[in-house]
Amino acid sequence: MRTFKIFFNTIRSMSFKKIMRLLSLVLPHPLFSLLSFHATVKAFTIAQKRFPDTASNNGIGNAFRHALWCCFIIMYCSKISSPEKALDFCKRITDLHEELFPNKPLETKMDLHNNKIGMDYFMELLPGVHRQFFEKSFFIDGLIEKMKEAKVLKNMDDDFEGYLVYLDEK
Fold first, then answer.
1. Helix 60-78, helix 105-125: angle, nearest 10
2. pLDDT in tens, 73-128
3. For the chain, first and last CA: distance in Å?
4. Cβ(90)–Cβ(135) under 8 Å?
5. Residues in a beta bridge with 151
6. What is the pTM of this model?
7. Orientation angle between helical segments 60-78 and 83-100, nearest 10 degrees
8. Burial, 41: exposed, middle or buried (Cβ in 10 Å; 0-12, 13-18, 19+)?
9. Three-state helix/strand/coil letters over 24-77
10. Are 167 and 146 in contact (CB under 8 A)?
């Protein structure tokens, strides 16, 4: 129930133009959209449980949450379509999220970067596991390992390809 209240309040806070942008992506893909919403709730819940102090700010838990979110979107959508279509939808919906709910430029760079890490991680695992047999634990364990080498993003010129990034909030 709390999840739907958050969702409803988020939609209420959006301008008409933003709602139309969102609808232009979700209406042509209703199943992907529902699965993405489910992925969002799951990733947020797991990140909050594992990293209660940093999952909702710009810390390392946030990096984990964004990467996990993308893995889950592709995983769920790949169960009903091709991984390539799921990846394309994931990129479009997560990029749109950053557009509709803008942050400071460095925060946006961090979120988009970590989204890409999640997408790349799913595609890296794909050849070894049939898409129907992916489980949440595959990504959780792997991303926690990646967190050990995460980098602090300090300016817009930083390029940490292949690494999760977060902002040092001290």
1. 40
2. 999 999 999 999 999 999 999 999 999 988 999 999 999 999 999 999 999 999 88
3. 34
4. no
5. 165
6. 0.91
7. 140
8. middle
9. HHHCCCHHHHHHHHHHHHHHHHHHHHHCCCCCCCCCHHHHHHHHHHHHHHHHHH
10. no
